[in-house]
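I am hoping you can look over what I have pasted underneath with an eye to the fold:
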Amino acid sequence: MTEKITAADAIRLLDTGKAVAVDVREPDEYAVGHIPGAKLLPLGQVIDRAAEVLPEIAAALKGTGVKVLVDGGIRTGVDVFKALALGADGVLICRPFVTAVYGGGEEGVKCYIDKLAGELADTMQMCGAHSIEEITPDMVRV
């Protein structure tokens, strides 16, 4: 496993004027593709390993105007909740939508969106968050 990114690394990369992309997969797990001009830093396994670095990075980038997005491994509304609780401003989801559109077209995508929304709403309700803004780090255990 390679070195983990730190908040200092994120700020240093931000200061270069390039996009900062944090990839939490092992190098042999990489998919083809990247953000042009971004520095891609391998870290480990997605949500579980992101939990180790996301709060520090989100805190360091707060107030800079940079949005922190978690990409990779987000499959359920619970995953979305975890990412938001750990400091992400949002999540990016791709592969499940490819499967949904391939298997069910427009209806498949709608079903997947409804599933994510329902799972997120249920998780929020169980944790006492009435809105996205009320999701806090103390609602997840890392």
The mean pLDDT is 78. Strands lie at 20-23, 39-42, 69-71, 90-92. The longest strand covers residues 20-23.
